[in-house]
Amino acid sequence: MKAKTVATVLKGSYYILKMSGSLLSAWLTLGWRVGRARRSFENQLVQGGMTKEDARQISEVYSELKDQMMSTVKGAISNARKSSGNSHFSLNNAASA
Amino acid sequence: MTTHIVVQGTNEVLKELPEGHEGPEDLEKVLKTVSDQIPTLVKGVLGAIFSPEAGKSMGAAAANFYRELKSSGLPEEVAVKMTQDYVKSFTNIGELFKDVSSKGGFSAHGEHGVPDAGDLSKKIEEEVKKKIAESKEHGTE
């Protein structure tokens, strides 16, 4: 029974690590992805007859979008932390009762 | 010490699970599914928004809109400002997620009741494409 539990904990840790690695790589390459998308976007605007400066100004939406996305993710993480804190509290209460 | 109490409490909860649910094994399955689905979902969303192809389509739509404004005789500054507002209107991620979730994107239909990340990222991609197509139509009107 104990060996089974240890195996389950190890497997669970492996999955969590695997997911964290993928998310970390996505986060690390986000700036690069945004830069590439932004350059393609600017090129199209310049081809459409806009000045480079104006195109750069409009392509700022990509940085804003990235910031918006990151704040959404941060908000979701902080909400999850709050709710897990509450569940720990209720489990503690249940155990002490 | 606190951890010990939490683990005790967790075990008590697990003992109360109905038959057919093995607790740690179920948790392992959920973790496996989540570790597969979440990175796929994140990559799908990032690919749909932050890729050179998506940038090119969005840029083409915005350039089309700008050209139309210019050809209708609007001054440069106004045309740029309007194009900026126009681009902002179809990169509103909050609305995008609302659209996807209202069409059942977040309903549980995948393995172990977890939403299928492939479906969800496809829906987000479809929404982005739809918005770009809509903006192209408005640009040519």
How is the topology of this model organized?
The complex is a heterodimer of chains A (97) and B (141).
Chain A: H1 2-47, H2 52-58, H3 60-96
Helix pairs in contact in A: 1-2, 1-3
Chain B: H1 2-15, H2 24-49, H3 52-71, H4 76-89, H5 93-102, H6 117-140
Key traits:
heterodimer; A: 97 residues; mainly alpha; 3 helices; 93% helix; elongated; B: 141 residues; 6 helices; rod-shaped; disordered N terminus
- Determine the fraction of residues in helical runs of chain B and give it as a percent range: over 70%
Largest sheet of chain A: none
Distance between the first and last residues' Cα of chain B: 69 Å
Largest interface in this structure:
A-B, 47 and 47 residues
Low-confidence stretches of chain B: 1-14, 104-115
| Strand content range of chain B | under 5%
Q: Supply Rg of chain A.
A: 22 Å
Task: Tell me the number of helical segments of chain B per DSSP (H or I, 4 or more residues long).
Answer: 6
Instruction: Work out the helicity level of chain A.
Output: over 70%
Strand elements of chain B, count: 0
Helix and strand sequence of chain B: HHHHHH
* DSSP E strands of chain A, number: 0
SS-derived structural category of chain B: mainly alpha
Radius of gyration of chain B: 23 Å
Number of helices of chain A: 3
